[in-house]
């Protein structure tokens, strides 16, 4: 589900790219510090983007140089520290990952489900700790995912309804973080909707093969993963409209720092990812 | 309970919706619990925050209630009232009233599409507005709504596809065009 939200690296200035990486490293460091280094694997660029957006409205700007396993024994990396965005994103990461594991345990075949259940068991303590920091967000996430589960069981032809459940989780994450910027919560609603739909298209061939729920199957009456030209046009239209709506909201905000990085992600990065996914050229594990 | 919600937010009774929203935001920023962690005044701030939220809710509900309520007109098409609800941002009530209407013509599909659009349900919104256009092909309001959606998409995609263009590229492109034009006896930009 995650990994789609990323900047278009080629259009970032070097200092902007370094800044984005420092937030990503900061998030890794914070998760390691709060929950244990073993959880650093739950990191993704989407939550780094969330942290960057929250911090765009603050004046905090502390960078420390720390050693990091991924940069070798002698080099130190610039790690963004102590910011509110990173602190909140770390908690949100744990809550979302734990719920994703439960979701996998419920939906997948025997071996993957068992592995997910085991990981969830070990993650329970971290989940409880994160939930204590953000109880409202946890409740909202569980409620939305339960609703999504009901929709998946009953099927239906709407793609908006299931997307709304996931979008609502992302929107709530932002609402909890920045209470007095409802436009940001709305922006994250549109981005969350886009993530859900892009992920649905990405998973379509496997879902059809394994006869799993996928909102596109009901909407476009699919027997194979190929959409007709008209259906592809409708789907492309709705994906781009969510991004256009997010971009319009971003335009109206008076952001302090990092405006150009956020614009890069929303206007260029997500555009590229959309085209790659729709052309089936997307590789999830591509590192920046 | 609050006596006068307008007094709590510090606005007059005839303040515009935007002024009310602005006043709410400023007070919310001032009394937000995050500003009072480890502060002896945190309890007072929490009470004040509750009061502000209550006052805002009362005013919003009161203003929405000035539109004729679907309760009196259940089953008949009260589209003027629904349009007012949409304008004021009361999408939930607008959707509820629309769902109660059984006789669904072009205007119903247009308004329902608009409500879905506001919710961010763009796929169903487009389908409904397209249906409205189909049922009333000469209606400019419905056609314009569809065109606006298409234009917004085009604007976003054009920006995404023109990567690498900057202000310098635009200016130098224009200067080159002006030079070429002058070579051929014309003058694209008079002052260059």
Can you describe this structure?
The complex is a heterodimer of chains A (288) and B (192). With 288 residues, chain A is mostly helical. Chain A has ten helices and two strands. In chain A, helix 9 runs antiparallel to helix 10. The two termini of chain A are 18 Å apart. Chain B has 192 residues and is mainly α. About 5% of the residues of chain B have low confidence.
Keywords:
heterodimer; A: 288 residues; mainly alpha; two-stranded antiparallel ribbon; 10 helices; 2 strands; 68% helix; B: 192 residues; 9 helices
Give a quick rundown of the structure:
The complex is a heterodimer of chains A (288) and B (192). Chain A has ten helices and two strands; from the N terminus they run ααββαααααααα.
How do the helices and strands follow one another from N- to C-terminus of chain B?
Answer: HHHHHHHHH
What structural class results from the helix and strand content of chain B? mainly alpha
What would you call the structural class of chain A? mainly alpha
| Terminal CA distance of chain A | 18 Å
Any chance you could write out the topology, listing elements then pairs?
The complex is a heterodimer of chains A (288) and B (192).
Chain A: H1 14-35, H2 45-55, E1 63-67, E2 76-80, H3 84-107, H4 110-133, H5 135-154, H6 160-177, H7 182-209, H8 215-220, H9 229-252, H10 259-278
Antiparallel strand pairs in A: 1-2
Helix pairs in contact in A: 1-2, 1-3, 2-3, 3-4, 3-5, 4-5, 5-6, 6-7, 7-9, 7-10, 9-10
Chain B: H1 5-9, H2 17-31, H3 42-65, H4 79-87, H5 91-100, H6 106-119, H7 122-135, H8 140-161, H9 167-183
Helix pairs in contact in B: 2-3, 4-5, 4-6, 5-6, 6-7, 7-8
């Amino acid at each position: 589900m995650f990994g789609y939200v990323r900047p278009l690296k080629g259009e970032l200035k070097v200092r902007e790219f370094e800044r984005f990486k420092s937030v990503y490293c900061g998030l890794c460091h914070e998760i390691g510090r709060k929950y244990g280094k073993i959880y650093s694997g739950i990191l993704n660029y989407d939550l780094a983007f969330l942290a960057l957006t929250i911090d765009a409205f603050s004046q905090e700007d502390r960078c420390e140089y720390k050693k990091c396993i991924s940069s070798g024994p002698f080099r130190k990396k610039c790690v963004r520290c102590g910011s509110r965005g990173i602190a909140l994103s770390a908690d949100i990461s744990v809550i979302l990952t734990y719920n994703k594991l439960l979701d996998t345990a419920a939906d997948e075949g025997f071996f993957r489900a068992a592995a997910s259940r085991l990981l969830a068991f070990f993650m329970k303590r971290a989940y409880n700790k994160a939930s204590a920091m953000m109880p409202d967000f946890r409740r909202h996430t569980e409620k939305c995912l339960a609703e999504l589960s009901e929709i998946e069981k009953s099927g239906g032809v709407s793609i908006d309804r299931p997307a709304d459940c996931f979008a609502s989780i992302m929107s709530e994450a932002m609402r909890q973080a920045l209470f007095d910027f409802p436009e940001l919560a709305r922006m994250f609603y549109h981005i969350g909707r886009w993530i859900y739909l892009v992920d649905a298209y990405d998973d379509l061939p496997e879902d059809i093969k394994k006869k799993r729920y996928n909102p596109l199957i009901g909407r476009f009456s699919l027997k194979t993963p190929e959409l007709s030209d008209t259906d592809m046009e409708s789907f492309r239209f709705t994906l781009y409209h969510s991004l256009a709506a997010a971009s319009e909201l971003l335009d109206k905000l008076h952001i302090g720092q990092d405006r150009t990085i956020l614009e890069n992600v929303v206007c260029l990065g997500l555009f590229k990812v959309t085209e790659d996914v729709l052309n089936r050229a997307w590789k999830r594990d591509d590192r920046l | 309970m609050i006596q006068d919600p307008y007094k709590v937010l510090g606005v007059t009774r005839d303040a515009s919706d935007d002024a009310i929203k602005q006043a709410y935001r400023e007070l919310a920023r001032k009394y937000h619990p995050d500003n009072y962690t480890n502060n002896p005044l945190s309890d007072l701030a929490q009470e004040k925050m509750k009061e502000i939220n209550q006052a805002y809710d009362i005013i919003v509900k009161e203003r929405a209630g000035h539109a004729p309520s679907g309760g009196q007109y259940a089953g008949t098409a009260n589209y003027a009232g629904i349009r007012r609800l949409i304008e004021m941002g009361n999408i939930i009530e607008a959707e509820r009233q629309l769902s109660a209407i059984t006789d669904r013509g072009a205007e119903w599909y247009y308004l329902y599409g608009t409500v879905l659009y506001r919710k961010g349900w763009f796929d169903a919104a487009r389908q409904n507005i397209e249906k409205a256009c189909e049922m009333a092909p000469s209606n400019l309001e419905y056609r314009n709504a569809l065109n606006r959606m298409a234009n917004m998409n085009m604007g976003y995609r054009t920006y995404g596809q023109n990567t690498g263009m900057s202000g310098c590229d635009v200016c130098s492109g224009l200067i080159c065009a002006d030079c070429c034009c002058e070579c051929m006896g014309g003058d694209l930009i008079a002052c260059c």
